Amino acid sequence: MSRLLAIDSATDALSLALGGELACRSLHRVMPRQHQQLLFTLLDELFEGQNPAKLDLDAIVYGRGPGSFTGLRIAVSAAQGLAFSLGVPVVGVSSLETQVRTFLRRTDSAPAAMILSCIDARIGQVYGQWFSINDEEVCASGEAFVAPPEALELPDNWPRAEVSLVGVGSGFALQDDMPPEIRDSLTAWPDVLPEAQDMFKPAKLALEAGLGQDPMLATPDYVQSRIGWKTLAEQGRIA
C-alpha cells in the first residue's frame, strides 16, 4: 500500500492526512485565512515530531482545486517543497471530487444520486462540478466550472425517475440565489468541506496509472484565472 501525505487548503478548512487508504492519521481544521501561518505547525503535529525523511512516503498529494487562489498556492507550494526534499512525486486531486468522497464517507452510504459539488468562490460565484455514483465509485459528469449561483443548471443526463440529486459544499450557502429547479430538486449539505484522507484513493489510482508528477509540474486548477475583473490593458487609459 502506498504511504502518502495529503494536503488540501482550497476552502476555509486546512486538511492534512498521513497514511494510506485503510489507515491514516488526519487533522482537519476550519481556519479561514490562517492556512499559511499554521500549516507547518499542523504538519509537525501530524508527523508527531518525526523527520519527514523517516516517514517513508511514496508521494505528496495536493488539492489542486478549484477554490481559494491563495489556498491552492499554499497547498501546491507545500507539496512541491516537501516532494523536492524527499525525492518523491506529487499527485494533484480535484478538491470538488474530494468533497464528494468526504460526503459519501461521512454519510456511510453511496446513494443512487447525482451530486453537485460546489465551493463558494467568494465573489458572488461558485465553483462546481456534477458527479455520478457508479458501482459505488465517484465519476465526474462534465467539467468543473465557475458560475453565478443563479446560472446553475440541472445535469443533462439526469434520469429523473431513478436518481436523486444531492448538493454538497460551501457553495450551497448561496442556495437562495440558485434557480428554483435546482433548489427544489436537490438536498443540500452546505457544511461539507473536502477532507484530506479522502484524497488517498484517487491519488493511489493515479500513481498506479503512472500519473505521478515531477514536483515542478504541480499546478493549481483555478478553472478560470480571471473572474469579474479586468487587466490593466483591458481597463484602458486612466483619465
Automatic annotation (TrEMBL):
<dbReference type="InterPro" id="IPR022496">
    <property type="entry name" value="T6A_TsaB"/>
</dbReference>
<dbReference type="Pfam" id="PF00814">
    <property type="entry name" value="TsaD"/>
</dbReference>
<keyword id="KW-0012">Acyltransferase</keyword>
<keyword id="KW-0808">Transferase</keyword>
<dbReference type="InterPro" id="IPR043129">
    <property type="entry name" value="ATPase_NBD"/>
</dbReference>
<dbReference type="GO" id="GO:0061711">
    <property type="term" value="F:tRNA N(6)-L-threonylcarbamoyladenine synthase activity"/>
</dbReference>
<protein>
    <recommendedName>
        <fullName>tRNA threonylcarbamoyladenosine biosynthesis protein TsaB</fullName>
    </recommendedName>
</protein>
<dbReference type="InterPro" id="IPR000905">
    <property type="entry name" value="Gcp-like_dom"/>
</dbReference>
<comment type="similarity">
    <text>Belongs to the KAE1 / TsaD family. TsaB subfamily.</text>
</comment>
<feature type="domain" description="Gcp-like">
    <location>
        <begin position="32"/>
        <end position="157"/>
    </location>
</feature>
